[in-house]
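User: I would dearly like some help making sense of a protein record. I have put the entry right below:
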Amino acid sequence: MLKRTFLGNLLLLQALNWLIKPVWIFFIEVAVQNNLGDALYGKYYGIFGLALLFNILLDFGLNNYTAAKVASAPDHAVPTGLLGLRMWLALSYVLITAIFGLVQHMDIRFLGLVILNQVLAGFTLYFRSILQGRHLFKTDSIASVTDRMVAVALLSWLILGSGLSGEEGLLYFLLAQTAGYAVSLFFSWFYARRQNQTITEISSVEGFSLLSSMRWFAILSLCMAVFTRLDTQMLRHLSPGGEAEVGQYARSFRFLDAALIFSSLISSQLLPLFSRMISRNEPTDGLLWLNVRIVLFVALPLLFTGMYFASPLMGLFYDGPGKAGFTASDATVFGRLMACFLPMALVHIFGTWLTAAGELKKLGLLAIFCVVINAGLNFWLIPLQGPSGAALAGLITQTLFVIICIYWVILRNGFSLKQYRFFYLLISANAVYAIFYVVSRNLPDLNGFLLACGLWAFTGMFLFVPEWKKWLGRS
């Protein structure tokens, strides 16, 4: 019953997000980059990457705290004082991000709009945490895509009409996002304020004590953002191509971003489940193994897509009249970043388990270590290989991080490496490899990619989902 309920909620959440967010990633962002060119888009992407580095200051773990408090309080009441605390955090975020941006001589117009958009998104997430605590999951799901719906509508009109070009086009792109975030914030605030009962007022002393208790969550989130997003900052300064190569890197990273929607949504569903099961000393091995198979069902074909179908996929979006252009090095970057999805998606599973188990300090220290490793690898590889080197540095760092996470979960008896599971994974990995290899040798284009995906979907359903009859209630 738990598995069936989990899968039902997961499928609903995935469906809503996959209806909107891929349109943003593969239609809007691609069209904007093709219109602006790699250099100008890379200028924006570098600023955006910087803004994401310090994003934890807009949360600091307060979203999870708020959702839990609201869910456990009578009548789903909201604790007061948190909004003021978040405003102080937002001010800190604005100052720190602005200082780092101005030191790097980033364009103040674009920097200011990117910072504003992140602040709006941060407050939206706060009000959405209230919706989650009140179990208004349908409303929260709508709120999760409202910003993109508004921005897609505005930018589609601009792109199909007058088009976007030059710095003015980039400003319109950012302002459309601002409008989307503002509408989403209003929507979330409107529904969150419908019940205005309060719990005990949180004083400033209690607020700072709360932040102190969440310091390892903040350190973990900051460091994971750094070794995931540091590549764009280092590309700007270490790569001979500068911002143009940041734009080239963004082409492939866009596909990874889209894939991570899948595993991040799984993670959001798993955290409360793992927290409850661990607190009750219930075994989590079965649920972990289920989610490992779900992730691998998507991650393995993406891995081999990067190896065998990079050129036709990248060419579909970036080759042709009016497009940014596609080079052979793009295929290498794409392949390495698609390989990153496997460890990053598994971190969403095993890292979530460790978070639920209260191992935040251990994860934080591991993340600090990985920041050092990632920075060292980027210093070495980017001058030699450019964007390809940044992608390789990310792959090595993410793989190291997830291996240690899995090891720690096993030590805590949360997961077991049973012999049949190795055999199961070996057969599955070889099956998807054989499908993609054979098809790519005979049909190395988009038709071949679609055929390989179709064959894997058919084969993988039997290899990765052996309990499908139970989930459908047929046995």
Remarks:
- Residues 467-475 have pLDDT under 50 and may be disordered.
- The two ends are 13 Å apart (CA to CA).
- DSSP finds 18 helices and no strands in the chain.
